[in-house]
Task: structure prediction
Amino acid sequence: MGTQLISQESISWQKLAPFLDGPIRVRLSPGAKKSIRESNKVLKQILKTERKVYGVNTGFGKLGNVSISVKDLKQLQLNLVRSHSCGIGKPLDLGVTRLMLVLKLMTYAKGYSGVRPKLAQLLVDMLNHDILPIIPRKGSVGASGDLAPLAHMARGMIGEGDVHYQDRIVPAMIALKESNLNPIVLEAKEGLSLVNGTQVSVALGIRALAESYIILKTADITGALTTEASLSTRTVFNPKIHRLKKHKGQVQSATNVYQMLVDSEIVKSHEDCGNIQDPYSIRCIPHVHGSSREVYTNAEKIIDNELNSVSDNPLIFPNGEVMNSGHFHAEPVAQALDTLSIAMAEIGAIAERRINYIMKGIGDRIPMFAAVNPGLESGFMIAQVAAAALASENKTMAHPASIDSISTSAGQEDFVSMAPWAGRKCLRILNNVRAILAIELLTAANVNHRFHKKMSSGKGLVPMMNLLRRHHMLTTDDHPLADDIETINDLIQSGKIVNSVSRRINVL
Result:
């Protein structure tokens, strides 16, 4: 396990993705420590004056015009964390929570928050001991910061609420004590700085990017396998055709499918079949998958920009200026995740259509529903129905969250991003898409096993077929398919399907 350096340098989401899977040690760079220290020094100097600073010596939101006396400044920050801890629902997964702490630390490292080095160090220590606050997933509208969930994060830092520590749920105070750490006593602006920001939205975005990355590659694999199994042509994927369109993602997907099907005896077996064109769900794989790849790339750029940004408010500048803005507003992330949801829902939708194409049978070589004895057996009839149900769910969930808004804080915060919901429903869509691809993989692989058994698959698909064979996924009779779908789903999510193919072809 390496160490992730937190500095003022920009990094990609992929550098942070390992935090989704487990603890990674972190440390602050000397430059980051200096910037945090200098920013706190500036805030202390401001506090010696009688300047009114929002959230430092005033109330919050619509109460921003209420002045707070010096003796109540610590209580103000404590009250903020406690009053904002009103999240709802099941906890966020541990990987997302871990990322929230990292992203908050990255904002502090930029040196515009005014917090003490002691607060930043506690975040470092909690990450290094993997002390993760239990954070309800619902309750943020993605503006004024991800207030409720971040407040639950802050509760753990002040020794309140529960945390996940050493594979158990314990009170935060116990976890801190067992790790020889002390809870923080919040000082001026620190409570506000903890709850302000887009860290929840961005953490969900990183999770979505990581899962989409595997799904996009897997979709080309399942598409290639269905192309082969359904006796469709390889010719339409020739990259020289697709270079006539100026879409990089389309060329990449076409190249993937074309290379996976090299030396496929199944494809060669019907070269003179006389069929002129295959259905869109196969012929247009590069156009649909490629478009989704390009939307993914754009979402990746936006989320990378946000995770390297300062999302605090107010901002403490080195020259002593205190400036307010809406950097906590997660509209860019919301729009990125909404477009990603649409793109990934389309991956599932076209995959379901490919499954359906096989269901009606193909010529005299593939019976209806890919059943060996149609009528006596139902084959993959209901597996396709399950895929259809998931694809239909995705059509509803792909409705953009970012075009919704609801006024909060007595009208002061009157236009919000809904980015956390955009992220959560994107992850639900991705779960459905992965299951659809698992069903397509199960169906097409069994078509090959049942009806093309004497012929080899394309060179890119052979190792993947062998992987399925080792997991006993290739069968000839009716049996409950739920466990098979779950097994293949796990193989997709773990990256084993993609890895099996990528060892044979140069792209993906």
Summary: The first strand starts at residue 3 and ends at 6. The two ends are 27 Å apart (CA to CA). The chain has two domains: 3-197, 204-502.
